[in-house]
């Protein structure tokens, strides 16, 4: 395929697209009869590809991948060399080789993704993310910070009703927050079940839904690349209490987030305060 682009944003797009094509090829080769085997093979082939290319083209950078051994543990820097390498590094790639393994293993589903993000110590944004790409291989598209999509347009209904239309909130298919149904009823919103976090945030970026609210458990790789793209687009992204999202922390758990249009942020944060139990 030749040399990749050397600008970080374009490189992230190239890498996510390559991994996404490998996953599509694997799906075609293996089929869907043994979903467990397909999931395991998908995680491995994408992780190995991304790790190999990062070692080749960005050898000085550290990496945090969902598929790394011990990646979910909150390490003390003084006792773990892998943690030291990323916690003291100036640049860290945060990757989810296959976000939405369940959806990937189900024939006909397209709501799964590949996440590639770059965190930099000198990043100007509070989250420190300076580049990122989300490949949606079965949708044949890649969203990236190198060419971020335009800010989602207001729909005709929203424009004419001054925001009075029914809001659409992306929600987990299997693990939606327990308070989300009550919150949606409170603000007159419709819940739209989807698969991976990347697919849900991508739907906010493209205007298919108005917001994505999650609580109850995620890690940095679940949101880093989608958040990088969303904020490059101009969307709001924060914890559900309104505090800043932070990446490359010693503890990679990042259990909740809100991604939405900026004009909805105050309304949704107020509703979250009423329903989620956050102070």
From TrEMBL:
UniProt entry keywords in alphabetical sequence: Magnesium, Metal-binding
Catalytic reactions on record: adenosine 3',5'-bisphosphate + H2O = AMP + phosphate
N-terminal signal peptide: none
Residues reported in the UniProt entry to bind Mg(2+): 66, 96, 98-99, 222
Names of required cofactors: Mg(2+)
Record GO biological process: 3'-phosphoadenosine 5'-phosphosulfate metabolic process; sulfate assimilation
Alphabetical list of InterPro entries matching this protein: CysQ/Inositol_MonoPase, Inositol_monoP_metal-BS, Inositol_monophosphatase-like
GO molecular function (one): metal ion binding
Pfam families: Inositol_P (PF00459)
Name by which UniProt lists this protein: 3'(2'),5-bisphosphonucleoside 3'(2')-phosphohydrolase
